[in-house]
Amino acid sequence: MNGLLFGLWAARIPAFVERFGLDHDALGLLLLCIAGGAIVAFPLAGRASDRMGAKRLTRLLIPVQICTLLALPLMPSLWLLAPALFLFGAAYGATDVAMNGWATEIERAGGRPILSSFHAAWSLASGAGAASGLVFAGGPVLLHFAVVGLPAAALGWWLTRVPWQSDLSDDGPAFALPKGGLVTVGIVALAAALGEGAVADWSAVYLIEALSQTERAAPLGYACFAAAMVTVRLAGDGLVARFGPTAMTRASGVLAVTGASLVALAPGLGLALPGFVLFGLGLGVIFPLAFSRAAASRSMPAGQAIAAVATLGYGGILIGPPLIGLVAAATSLRIGMALLAVLALLIVALARAMAPPPAP
């Protein structure tokens, strides 16, 4: 549900660009509203998750997220769209922290890596949301969001009835940031998130403006990227168990650098789409590894540790798009996309941060 709703938004960004006549600068600044909402929500949701339980919080937030998405196409002006995007970002970010906290509880109870497969479901759904733009291209955005999003939210809310007793904790501050080894984990997640957010929000615009594609073909970049993330995440748990988190992180970084470079240099879809595939393969396991490492922290409660890493990590998903917009406005959209390859080098350089913490 969470991934599908995000994919729906990503697929229809060109429609908002056309409706409000947005240039790169304006779109980049508008996307900062989503980033602001999510960054405020991350640590608050982590604290709430520890206090009331990750499962309960997830169930409470699902109706909020779908309502904020449906509100976006109803906004008649940029002055109203901006706060609506802030609320959408807050609902998305809070739900993300809560459901990842719940997932790490299930992983600990099972005693083996499984978080990657949960993230595969997110990627599969976000790709499906983006691909649905092929069907609804040129049609009303509200109709698109309602027809696809409402059934997904209803199903997600119904499925959260499953019995589960979440861990509870009253320790720690209301607003926590990473500390110790989690800072480096957060930086690795940030580098991956900047790339993921940029592809989600700029790939469609990039294919239209830099590669002269039509609006109907524009969602293909993100759809290929998300499909690649699904593939590697489905295999990720077994790969992590076999090779370890450090080696997987380093290899993933190399793939991400290669894929982002191909996208930035591609003269057409023939190289751009394989580049999006490699980039997705490179970024796919980074978030599951980062959240598993955060949940294993010995210095913070699990919910706050996940939220602290998410503040840097998933914050990057939302900071990345406006950053690319500002760079594109100052230089070109190709150079903005090339920046993702440079950021991916951080994943290679800091791979050792993903190793499990030493036993007490």
UniProtKB/TrEMBL annotation:
<dbReference type="InterPro" id="IPR051788">
    <property type="entry name" value="MFS_Transporter"/>
</dbReference>
<keyword id="KW-0812">Transmembrane</keyword>
<dbReference type="InterPro" id="IPR020846">
    <property type="entry name" value="MFS_dom"/>
</dbReference>
<feature type="transmembrane region" description="Helical">
    <location>
        <begin position="29"/>
        <end position="45"/>
    </location>
</feature>
<keyword id="KW-0472">Membrane</keyword>
<feature type="transmembrane region" description="Helical">
    <location>
        <begin position="220"/>
        <end position="240"/>
    </location>
</feature>
<dbReference type="Pfam" id="PF07690">
    <property type="entry name" value="MFS_1"/>
</dbReference>
<dbReference type="InterPro" id="IPR036259">
    <property type="entry name" value="MFS_trans_sf"/>
</dbReference>
<keyword id="KW-1133">Transmembrane helix</keyword>
<feature type="transmembrane region" description="Helical">
    <location>
        <begin position="141"/>
        <end position="159"/>
    </location>
</feature>
<feature type="transmembrane region" description="Helical">
    <location>
        <begin position="306"/>
        <end position="329"/>
    </location>
</feature>
<feature type="transmembrane region" description="Helical">
    <location>
        <begin position="335"/>
        <end position="355"/>
    </location>
</feature>
<feature type="transmembrane region" description="Helical">
    <location>
        <begin position="180"/>
        <end position="200"/>
    </location>
</feature>
<feature type="transmembrane region" description="Helical">
    <location>
        <begin position="252"/>
        <end position="270"/>
    </location>
</feature>
<feature type="domain" description="Major facilitator superfamily (MFS) profile">
    <location>
        <begin position="181"/>
        <end position="360"/>
    </location>
</feature>
<dbReference type="InterPro" id="IPR011701">
    <property type="entry name" value="MFS"/>
</dbReference>
<protein>
    <submittedName>
        <fullName>Major Facilitator Superfamily protein</fullName>
    </submittedName>
</protein>
<dbReference type="GO" id="GO:0016020">
    <property type="term" value="C:membrane"/>
</dbReference>
<dbReference type="GO" id="GO:0022857">
    <property type="term" value="F:transmembrane transporter activity"/>
</dbReference>
